[in-house]
């Protein structure tokens, strides 16, 4: 059974860093384009970053470019999102997505 489990969320001060993880089971990340989305209170879910399955290129939303880094560990079949210089506007529930599968989400709160 395909499953994605996110972890690593929490409370971080502005300017801080955090790394989210998404452990996949029942599917192989290398076979898909994979990515991170987020949903802030009262807002629609938006794409944050993704890795293309066709060429391995990475893509970022303008709001996170140069601050966030997406990468995967093929051996662990896990997707990561490393986030630097966090801002209060980054506060949201973060979801990983692979094909039609979604994780349950992990909450990130950026606040002093």
Radius of gyration: 13 Å
The poorly predicted ranges are none
pLDDT average, as an integer? 96
Residue fraction in strands: over 45%
Count of DSSP-assigned helices:
0
Order of helices and strands: EEEEEEEEEEE
The SS-based structural class is: mainly beta
Number of strands: 11
Helicity, in percent? under 10%
Query: The biggest beta sheet, please?
Result: 7 strands, mixed
User: Ends: how far apart?
Assistant: 40 Å
Choose one word for the global shape: globular
Structural features:
single chain; 7-stranded mixed sheet; 11 strands; mainly beta; 112 residues
Task: Please provide a written account of the structure.
- There is one protein chain.
- The protein has strands at 3-7, 10-12, 18-25, 34-39, 46-51, 58-60, 68-73, 78-83, 92-98, 101-102, 106-110.
- The chain is mostly beta strands.
- Strand 4 and strand 5 (46-51) form a beta hairpin.
- The radius of gyration is 13 Å and the shape is globular.
Write the layout of secondary structure elements.
Elements: E1 3-7, E2 10-12, E3 18-25, E4 34-39, E5 46-51, E6 58-60, E7 68-73, E8 78-83, E9 92-98, E10 101-102, E11 106-110
Parallel strand pairs: 2-11
Antiparallel strand pairs: 1-3, 3-8, 4-5, 4-9, 5-6, 7-8, 9-10, 9-11
Give a brief rundown of this model.
The protein is mainly β and 112 residues long. It has no helices and eleven strands. It is 0% helix and 51% strand.
């Amino acid at each position: 059974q395909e499953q994605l489990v996110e972890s690593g969320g929490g409370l971080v001060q502005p300017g801080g860093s955090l790394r989210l993880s998404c452990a996949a089971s029942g599917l192989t990340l290398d076979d898909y384009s994979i990515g991170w989305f987020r949903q802030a209170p009262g807002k629609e879910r938006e794409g944050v970053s993704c890795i293309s399955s066709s060429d391995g290129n990475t893509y970022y939303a303008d709001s996170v470019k140069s601050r966030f880094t997406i990468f995967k560990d093929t051996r662990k079949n896990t997707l990561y999102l490393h986030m630097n210089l966090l801002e209060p506007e980054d506060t949201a529930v973060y979801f990983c997505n692979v094909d039609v599968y979604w994780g349950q989400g992990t909450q990130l709160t950026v606040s002093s």
